[in-house]
Design goal:
Layout: H1 12-21, H2 24-36, H3 40-68, H4 72-82, H5 91-122, H6 131-142, H7 145-164, H8 167-196, H9 199-207, H10 216-229, H11 236-242, H12 250-278, H13 293-299, H14 304-338, H15 342-363, H16 372-377, H17 381-406, H18 410-417, H19 421-445, H20 454-477
Bound molecules: phenylalanine.
Phenylalanine (PHE) is lined by residues 20-21, 23-26, 103, 228-229, 231, 234, 236, 322, 325-326.
């Protein structure tokens, strides 16, 4: 059964996809990764990665959604059948569903921290606090399983409610209301940071390239970040793409998504670093940048509590618009496959993520020093979830690229992309060879014993391997072509 949902307007897909893409990845992750990896050097490799991996896979994923017009699992089943490809490709759908479940489980816990900080800022609890007080405030939040569970529950319930109301009444309406408001808040924060922070220092840090800061680690972080921030390999854009009207141009829309997503990350990064430098704090704080460094910067500035609260509302809003895109693909699958009602499907997904999220909650307190995960894997449950994300998203993206690049016919791609022959060939070359090889590099990070010089060699083997495999695939299934 294919879906009956189609976005109300031509532009709604862009709105929804931007809602999915812009989230904690832009406001929390991008600035701290840039801070840790040398600012301008990170930005450079990040933009190169977006061009050779992000954009091509983004297009591929939307393409698969729109040409199947089904939820990711059913869509891949349909496409592999109609293209006489192995049913193994259906695993793209299953992998993406697993990724959605895992990401949302901890994403909701982190978004919950922003709820806490909105509250703290509004009540003026942090006015005139010093560094030690702000840091211990964050620590005591993490130490409280009940507080973390409360915020996690509120966040995931709100996201579930929106999706439960339906594609039009829930998702579309919520996005139409939220996205313009988020844009206004972002501009308010930017203006405030120009007025009260040290913008030249922020620009200098984020935009000047120090070649000596370029590192392999930074490049890998940039690669992981491009998947996370564009919501790739997780079915979100495939599900949203399935609701995209046939006439809207796919390549132009994909480009717009990437440009807006990157602009938001840059603006957020500039604003955050301007405030951090203005308060003479450390830009390389890591994941705590938003929850310890930034609140401290706010406490030192005029009207900082109110602006701080507004900033954390932005974080919550951006996170909700991303969270709904993680619930939708799995909920849509349950509706299509088992004929459940939307409310039932959303409830199943939301409750499952909520339960899994408790593992992350406990990893900060009850299991902080000793847990079943520590014992078995020597990492915490939260770290395990993050690690799985960094495996599942690129793996899903790799398969999406290969399937879209090799299995779809020229005519099908042309119909969806509505672009020039030259661009189509460039895209196809990227998804057939370049993106898969680049993604293969990510996995190499997981193998610390590999010597640096072996990496280009392995990359070359992967390219040749992908080519050979795909030849086989074509020869076997399309003998007359
Ligand atoms: N892109 C979102 C962000 O940057 C996160 C996300 C990942 C959303 C995967 C949906 C799917 O915060």
């Amino acid at each position: 059964m294919s879906t009956n949902n189609i976005w109300t307007h031509k532009g709604t897909f862009l709105l929804a996809a931007v809602g999915s893409a812009v989230g904690l990845g832009n406001l929390w992750r991008f600035p701290y990764l840039a801070g840790e990896n040398g600012g301008g050097a990170f930005l450079l490799v990040y933009i190169v990665t977006l061009c050779i991996v992000g954009v091509p896979i983004l297009i591929a994923e939307i393409l698969l959604g729109r040409s199947s017009r089904r939820s990711p699992i059913m869509g891949m089943r349909f496409l592999s059948r109609t293209h006489k490809a192995s049913r193994a490709w259906e695993s793209i759908g299953w992998l993406s569903a697993a990724a959605a479940l895992i990401i949302l489980s901890f994403y909701s816990v982190i978004a919950g921290w922003a709820l806490h900080y909105t509250w703290r800022m509004l009540t003026g609890a942090l006015i005139d606090a010093d560094a030690a007080t702000v840091a211990s405030g964050f620590e005591s939040l993490l130490a409280s399983p009940s507080l973390l569970t409360l915020y996690h529950t509120l966040f995931i319930a709100a996201s579930g409610l929106i999706v439960g109301l339906g594609v039009h009444r829930g998702i579309e309406n919520a996005l139409r209301l939220m996205m313009p408001a988020l844009l206004v808040i972002l501009l308010v924060i930017l203006t405030y940071s120009v007025m009260h922070g040290d913008m030249p220092a922020a620009a200098d840090f984020l935009l000047t390239l120090q070649l000596s800061d370029l590192s392999f680690e930074g490049w890998l972080a940039a690669m992981g970040q491009s998947f996370f921030t564009l919501s790739l390999g997780m079915g979100a854009l495939m599900a949203y793409g399935a609701y995209m009207p046939g006439k809207a141009s796919l390549s132009r829309t994909a480009l717009a998504i990437v440009i807006i997503d990157t602009a938001v990350a840059l603006i957020a990064g500039l604003a955050i670093f301007a405030l951090v430098f203005g308060a003479e704090l450390d830009p390389a704080e890591g994941p705590g940048l938003m929850f310890t460094t930034l609140p401290l910067a706010f406490t030192e500035m005029p009207g900082g509590s109110l602006i701080g609260a507004v900033f954390f509302v932005l974080v919550i809003g951006a996170a909700i618009s991303s969270a709904i895109s993680m619930i939708e693909p799995v909920a849509a699958f349950l509706v299509e496959r088992f004929d459940l009602s939307r409310a039932q499907s959303v409830a199943i997904m939301t409750i499952a993520c909520w339960g899994l999220g408790l593992l992350s909650v406990f990893s900060f307190n009850v299991w902080a020093s000793d847990s079943p995960f520590h014992t078995a894997l020597s990492i915490s449950a939260f770290e395990l979830m993050e690690l799985l994300t960094h495996i599942l998203m690129p793996l899903g993206g790799l398969m999406v690229a290969l399937f879209a690049g090799w299995a779809l016919t020229h005519g099908e791609i042309m119909k969806e992309l509505q672009t020039s022959e030259g661009w189509l060939h460039t895209w196809r070359f990227l998804v057939r060879f370049v993106s898969p090889a680049a993604v293969a590099f990510i996995f190499l990070r997981a193998i610390p014993q590999i010597e640096g010089y072996l990496i280009p060699l392995i990359g070359a083997v992967v390219i040749v391997g992908a080519f050979a495999a795909s030849r086989l695939f074509r020869a076997k299934h399309q003998p007359k072509h």
